[in-house]
What we know:
The chain is of the alpha/beta class. It contains 16 helices and 26 strands. A five-stranded parallel β-sheet has the order 3-2-1-7-24, with helices on one face. A five-stranded parallel β-sheet has the order 8-21-9-10-17. Helix 6 (250-280) crosses helix 13 (508-516) and helix 9 (431-447) runs parallel beside helix 11 (484-495). The chain is globular and about 65 Å long. This is NAD(P)-binding domain-containing protein.
Amino acid sequence: MKVCVVGAGPCGLTTIKQLLDEGHEVVCFDKNADIGGLWLRHNGDDEQMKAYDNLHLTISMKLMAYSDHPFSGDRVFYTRKQYFRYLAEYADRFGLRPAIRFGSQVTDVRRDSGGWAVTVRHDGVESQETFDAVAVCSGPFKTPNRAIPEIKGFTGEIVHSSEYRNNKRFQGKKVLIVGLAESGADIVREIGDVADTATLSIRSRAYLLPRVFNSTRTTDHGTIRSHHHEMLRRATDYPFAYESFWGRTTIAEVVFTVVSIIYGIATTALGALRVLTEKMVPGRRPAAPTVNPFGQPAHPPQLDIDTPHTDENWDFIRTWNRKSHPDGSWAQRSIFSKNVSFVPSITSGKVLLNDSGIADADGTTVRFQDGTAAEFDTIVLCTGFSTDEISIGELRVRDGNVRNLYKHFLHPDHQGTVAFIGFVRPFSGGIPICAEMQARYFAQVCSGTLRVPRNIDEVIDREKKWEEHWTALSPRHTESIPSNIVYLDSLAREIGCLVPMWRMILNPKLFIQLWFGPFNQAGYRIVGPHALGRSAVDDLYSELVDNRREMALRMSLLQLMPSHVHPEHMM
């Protein structure tokens, strides 16, 4: 097929790669002068959505990498510049640039007798080209959400987080930050350092997750497949929507569960023996790292960048998280903020927190719902982006809700020829690997080796309801998914790159690493189309495994217990 790809950011790049792997002819249009999307910085980008100066990834590079260009080494948090260099390496390694037409903006997409007529503006001149299929990879970060009626009467400066680059313009000002997300956490911290006064206004709370665990490890090193399945599949009465290793066969699921318990207990015993041996033999235990994943000293311990692991900061996070789930549930049902670097700003008093919400504004005075009021020079909106209309020409997503697409990406009305790739946000995990798996699926559909489900509307409806249940406390974030692991496993099963259950059972080491070990997308390149074979297995086994013993015991015991005891054990 001749396929049009819109956008050459992280999602567009992997889409080009997966389509080329399947032998398709690919033309990508991007309005910028180079690859990278929001990671590309250039003069004159002040009003565009771009990564800000001091950005660090909120998940480690292990999970922000593509499975066909894995990150080697310990899990660390890359900076904005480092991640852009990674994208450039990816594009150059696989020769993606020749497929990209830079400085070209797609202005319209229409059905015609030959497929899809795509209109493109380049150097002020519009032209049209016909394609068999279209992948929209331009992302949801287009239209900043500035529609905050409560601040309509404010006459001071209003800045959206998409315009934020650094804190220089806020020096000595009275600043109100509205809303909090992962980027918002950095903005609160940085503005709090230089403003005359700073206030954070929120109405609801994302679930806070520190990026650093035990002072030397990334928290996402503890992202375990068995934990996600246990939390969303067994410890609830709500029907599980996705398919995993065992499919929908009850017998297969029982066999898998029994084997996981046996292997889990064995792993615990062997792990305990290994720890005992390391204690008895001098020099056997590896030396502890001297720096944390941000490159900062491991001691004193940190929870996040410049965020000391103190009782005060930790208690603040726990209290915040309890308030984020007022129903008292233990399973997270709101979006995560994998960035707690703003916490010291509040506990130290640099930034005031008002969680009552804004009532109204008059001039430079802002009144809050709790009856208090304050004067501000500037309001910074960390209020996300509008998803009311995700469309290009005739390509429209119903209600601007990507849950109305198959697996968040494949349009049900166009026989598999239209995909919106990358419009997904896992509670924890990376968008790039989600986009890669969506693109692998789409490329196979274009090749005819994978068919769109006949009951696609029924599946969309079932999975949409499941996601709405598990994201009920973040109803506006329709791009969110509660687990990247169960989502990716379901895609992998259809693509044919999920390791078969029988192969796992016959290979205990592989079973334990995939089920109890740190999640690593290399597992999707062991088998199936365009597999990397041994190199993928080696990458999977390269991960530190000293937490498998704890997770194996924890998950094995929980699988033996009735679901009503889970809240007590999973907090």
